[in-house]
Each structure stands twice: as C-alpha cells, then as structure tokens.
UniProtKB/TrEMBL annotation:
This is D-lactate dehydrogenase. It catalyses: (R)-lactate + NAD(+) = pyruvate + NADH + H(+). Belongs to the D-isomer specific 2-hydroxyacid dehydrogenase family. Pfam families: 2-Hacid_dh, 2-Hacid_dh_C. It comes from the Bacteria. Its EC number is 1.1.1.28. Residues 9-332 form the D-isomer specific 2-hydroxyacid dehydrogenase catalytic domain. It comes from Staphylococcus gallinarum.
Length: 332
C-alpha cells in the first residue's frame, strides 16, 4: 500500500485527511511537527511527503529525501517561497503547491475587513462597551455604493473581490494587473498604473503574489499617493508592503486605517501560540496595539472549504507524481 507522510498537520486537517485516505486506499501518517533536519529521518519508508510550513529547508533535508527515494514535496498552501529550487532540482524533487483554495473565502474576508474599516465597526463596538451610545461624527461612515474600490491583482481572488464590490454593493471598481481579466471588463475599469488608481480610490485591496518584483511594491512613495482618508487591505503576502511606510502614511492622516492579514516578518509566528510571550518584533507589537490597524494571523483563507481543498489538492498532487512522474501543480 502507498504510504504518505504529512507534516504540519493541525486538528482541523485530520477529518479531511482520513476521508481522502479511505477513498484512495492510501496509508497516511500524521505529524504535527514541521519537516526539519530533526524530523526528516521519519520519512524513511514512505512514498510521498506533504507539508504545511514557511520555514526554509536546509540542504540536508533535500539530500535525505532523495536518499529515501522521495520524489516530491506537496506544499499545502499557495506560497512556496520557502523552497530552494536549485536544491530541489539537484536532488530530483518535484515541489507542488495548491494555487487556489476557496478564493471565495479570502475574498469574503477581504470585503468584511473593508466594511469594518469603512463602517467603523471597531470604534462603535468600543464606544458601546464604554456605554457611550451617542451618534457622533467620529463614527459617521459612508455607503460602499458611493465609494471607489481599487483592486490590485485580478486573478482568482481579486476577481471575486471585484465582483462582490461591483455586483453586491454597486461600488465603482477600478483595477490594475499586468494581465487584464477579460471576464471583468464589464464591471471593472482597468488603469495603466497602480499610482493612477490609488490616487482616487477610497478602498485599496491587494491580491498579488510574493516575488522579487513585488517586494515592497507598496512603499513610502506609493502610500504618499493614496487618496486622503482611504483604507488599505492586504490579504495577499506580507512582503509586498513596507510596513513602516504604511504606518507613517496612517500617522500623516493619508490613510484612515488598514487591515493586514499578513505581515512581512510573520514566518515562525503565523500561526503559533505566543500568549504570555513578549514579542521581540517592536514593529509587530506596534501594529497589534494600534486602533487604526486590524491585524490577523494570515487567516483569511481559514474556512472548512479551504482546509479541505488544501488537503485534497496536495494529496492528489502527491499521488499524481507517484503514478505519472509529474504533476500539473508543479512549481519548479
């Protein structure tokens, strides 16, 4: 019987793994630990490997996987920047990812955070908790249908966000992408530059991948171009935003508030339990303490549908490699 070892398994993953295992008659071994130099020896005797982690692998891990006869690593996420493709290729390892897992889940979370910022939900809740029940200018908000929404990146997730804002709320949606999505042409007005759309947008939401080209895409210069009083949402990747520049733009009053589901230095922290720990990262501590920033631990995707998609697609990719020698989800 085929045997697959899964690392980084969480409690919510188990029912979907067991269901897949029973359906495909494949033996699975579940490990909550990450794949590291210390745990790689446990892979001996298995046919395939699936992981969920952000921490880079040292060369010895690639080497041992090859020695154990492993042909692939199935990453249970869209991001795969923790892998060294040169080492993967050197040791004949196919790296796969899950490029799309319930884009609706992430889009819904994005829109909910935009509503939170625009409609002042946190401020209203705080005032109510203080028994301040007054209607007052500080919590007066605007209707989404009267606002302009800028969507940066109109792929799987960004396109759903654009549809929700345009069709669900009647907002004006403008967008930027290096490749225009033809299916959105009737509801989205594409512009030639990001600067051109952030200058007029009331809501700016980001849905681009992490890459060398996109590193600090949102920097001091771009944030200074934002429309005064706008809100900013990043449910994409932390590395695309210069966090200090964002904070400066908020402090200047250019940006009213931000919702960040990802952070540029989140590796090793999201997800983890840091209760009772004094965080060494002062920048992260400042984000947590701010009332004009909503920070969440890379959780926009976190629905039952997304968790199931991550498990099933990663294990399907593993079997595809074992049966055919390759997979359509290969990234190296």
């Amino acid at each position: 019987m085929t045997k697959i070892k899964l690392f980084g398994v969480r409690e919510e993953d188990i029912p979907y793994i067991e269901a897949w295992s029973a359906q495909h008659k494949v033996s699975v071994d579940l490990d909550s630990q990450l794949l590291t130099e210390s745990t790689v020896d446990s892979v001996r005797g298995f046919d395939g490997v699936s992981v969920s982690q952000q921490i880079p692998l040292p060369e010895v891990v690639y080497k041992k996987l090859n020695e154990f006869g492993i042909k692939q690593i199935a990453q249970r996420s869209a991001g795969y920047d923790c892998y060294d493709f040169e080492l993967a290729n050197k040791y004949n390892l196919i790296i796969s990812n899950v490029p799309s897992y319930s884009p609706e889940s992430i889009a819904e979370y994005t829109v909910s955070q935009a509503l939170n910022l625009v409609r002042n939900f946190n401020d209203i809740q705080q005032k109510t908790a203080e028994q301040d029940f007054r209607w007052q200018p500080a919590i007066l908000s605007r209707s989404i249908k009267d606002l302009t929404v800028a969507v940066i990146g109109t792929g799987r997730i960004g396109s759903v966000v654009a549809k929700i804002f345009a069709n669900g709320f009647g907002a004006k949606v403008i967008a930027y992408d290096i490749v225009k999505n033809e299916q959105l042409q009737s509801i989205v007005n594409y512009k030639d530059t990001i600067k051109e759309i952030v200058e007029v947008a009331d809501i700016v939401t980001v849905h681009v991948p992490a890459s060398d080209e996109n590193h600090y895409l949102f920097d001091e210069s771009l944030f200074n171009s934002f429309k005064e009083g706008s809100v900013f949402i990043n449910c994409a990747r932390g590395s695309v935003v210069n966090t200090r520049a964002l904070i400066e733009a908020i402090d200047k009053g250019i940006i009213k508030g931000a919702a960040l589901d990802t952070y540029e230095a989140e590796k090793g922290l999201f997800p983890s339990d840091q209760r009772g720990v004094i965080l060494e990262d002062e920048l992260l501590r400042s984000l947590i303490e701010r009332k004009d920033v909503i920070l969440s631990p890379h959780i926009a995707f976190y629905t039952d549908a997304a968790v199931e998609n991550l498990i099933v697609d990663a294990l399907d990719a593993t079997m595809e490699v074992l049966q055919t020698g390759d997979t359509s989800l290969r990234v190296n």
